[in-house]
Amino acid sequence: MKPLSIDGAWAFTPRVHADPRGSFLEAFRAADLPVPFELAQVNCSVSKAGVLRGIHFADVPPGQAKYVMCVSGSVLDVVVDLRVGSPGFGRWEAVALDDSERAAVYLSEGLGHGFMALSEEATVVYLCSTPYNPSAEHGVHPLSLGIEWPGLEPLLSEKDAAAPTLDAALEAGLLPDYATCRRFYAERH
Catalytic residue at 178? Predict the structure, then answer.
C-alpha cells in the first residue's frame, strides 16, 4: 500500500496475472492493509459519465473506513481531509481508479470521500467498516472544495447538491475532530 499525501489514506495497485484466458488478481487482502479493517458492508454503485458522488463522511466514532475499487469503467476518486485540527485540513487528493490498472483506495474514518464517473458507465464497489447509518452520515458540497474535477458536466444527487460548503459544515460543527479521530485510530490497533 502506498500512502497518499493525506494522513490515513493509501492507494493499492494489485499485481494482475494475465494470460490468454483473461486475468486474475487479489483485489483485497485485509492482512495487507496498514491498519485493522473489519468488514461490515459492501456497497456497489453504477454511475453514468459525469455523475459526482460525495463528498461523504460519517461521525467519528465509529466513523466509516472504506476500501474503494472501480470494477468496470473509470472514475476519479477523491479523498478529502475533513478532520478539524488536522495539519492537512481541507486538502484533497485524487486517484484514478479503473478496470485496467485495478487500483484501490483505502481511507480511514473521518476522511471525506467522493468520485466522478469518467467512462460512459462506471461501477464502483466499496467495502465499509461499519453499516450505513443515515443519522451519522454527512456531506460537504463537492464543488465547493477547489477539487479539480474533470471537464464533464457534474451530475449530483439532490442530497449532495444541498450539502453545505466546508466553511458552513465547520461552522455547524458537523466535521470530525482530528484529536478524536487519532484516539479512535489508536484504540482499534
Answer: no
Has 126 been annotated as catalytic? yes
- What does the alpha-carbon distance between residue 81 and residue 140 come to, in Å, rounded to a whole number? 11
pTM of the predicted protein model: 0.94
Which CATH number is 169's domain given? 2.60.120.10
Tens digit of each residue's pLDDT (9 = 90 or more) over 104-124 = 999 999 999 999 999 999 999
Cα 166 from Cα 104, distance rounded (Å): 26
Whole-angstrom distance, CA of residue 178 vs CA of residue 189: 17
Q: Which domain holds residue 79?
A: 2-188
Quickly list H helices, the chain. Answer: 158-161, 166-171, 178-188
Catalytic member of 67, 106, 126, 185: 126
Structurally, the chain folds into a number of domains equal to: 1
Q: What is the tens place of the pLDDT at every residue in 11-23?
A: 999 999 999 999 9
Cell of 175: 466535521
